[in-house]
Amino acid sequence: MEATAEVQQENGFHDETGSAKMHERLQKRHQARVEDAERRKEAKDSQSVAEEKGEYFSSAFNRERLSIEELLSSCPGAERAAVAQRLEEATARTGQLQKFLNDSVLFLTQYELRQAQQALQKLQASLAEAREEALPKKKFAFRTRTKAADKAAAPAPGLVPDLVSSDAGEHAGSVQVDGAAVSEQCGFSNMHGQVLTKTSDEIQKRDVLLTHLTHCKVRLLGSPSTLHLKHIDGCEILCGPVSSSVFVDHCRDSTLAFPCQQLRTHNTTDTQVYLHVTSRAIIEDCHGVGLAPFSWSYPQLEEDFTVSGLDRDRNNWSQVDDFNWLAAGTASPNWSVIPEVDRKTSWDP
């Protein structure tokens, strides 16, 4: 009897133990299902938020773009004063639209980003065309001039021909239209082996164009509105904070340094960029691009950062979108981070 009781007691113990283990397994399985369901829900919610942000961006961006286009279409036939005011408004709103795009790149898909950038480029081209049609540059007219006047009006060496004033008394980079100055781009063009400098007074809040430069050292001390670099070979170009975008095209064997809101780089090879950028940099058709944090300094740098409106504490220098490399999870072979030991630390002689 005692043996039977012991067996029953032992069987009961084993039954209880087995039941406890089964209960524990069921609890773990239930917990795993709950956690999996929560992860799925979070992923779905995150995707929904991203889609909602994308939809809001597309709607707001296209609405503002169409509004600016309507403003431009109202320029032909209007009085000159009204046209100038509308163009000024369109320019300011286009700049705000660029900023809206820059602030939205973190949640936009590659396709959405490219579509918006193409639309913005078309809008900027339309704005430039409208300005040219409504406020054309002063046409050249033959008149009797003295040799002294001809010498005074001659373009300064290295300045882009189209950017030189049509009147000897005006600064390079502006033209006279019915007695009123209309701001134009300024910069350097077709130079070789030169040391070139622009001061803050010359470039502040203006569009700067550097084109067809070889083996030149360029210092831009100030805060331009935009910076365009085209056909640059073997140069060192340093620039103060650019309030909007830097566009680089056909650059090779060069060193560049600048802070900006957005960087677009095309057809560039074997070039180092020391960068401060508040959005994500974009490269296309590039190879051998090296990136490092912006490290150039000059006495008025902090003041120019304030003028530019750039966030000093927000630098996405190593965040790059390569439009020729869309393989998720695999680093692009077209750009790399410059190792710290190889970074340039001394800029001026």
Highlighted features:
349 residues, alpha/beta, Methane Monooxygenase Hydroxylase, Chain G, domain 1, Pectate Lyase C-like, 3 domains, two-stranded antiparallel ribbon, 6 helices
Please provide a written account of the structure.
- Residues 1-52 are annotated as: Disordered.
- The protein is built from six helices and 15 strands.
- It has 349 residues and is α/β, with parallel strands linked by helices.
- The protein folds into three domains: 42-134, Tubulin Binding Cofactor C, N-terminal domain (Methane Monooxygenase Hydroxylase, Chain G, domain 1, Up-down Bundle), CATH 1.20.58; 147-183, no CATH class; 185-342, Pectate Lyase C-like, CATH 2.160.20.
- The strands form two sheets. Strands 3, 4, 5, 6, 7, 8, 9, 10, 11, 12, 13, 14 and 15 form a 13-stranded parallel sheet that branches. A two-stranded antiparallel ribbon has the order 1-2.
- A hairpin with a 2-residue loop joins strand 1 and strand 2.
- Helix 1 packs antiparallel against helix 2, helix 1 packs parallel to helix 3 (110-134) and helix 2 (80-104) packs antiparallel against helix 3.
- The longest helix is centred in the N-terminal third of the chain and has 72 residues, at 2-73.
- The N and C termini lie far apart (105 Å).
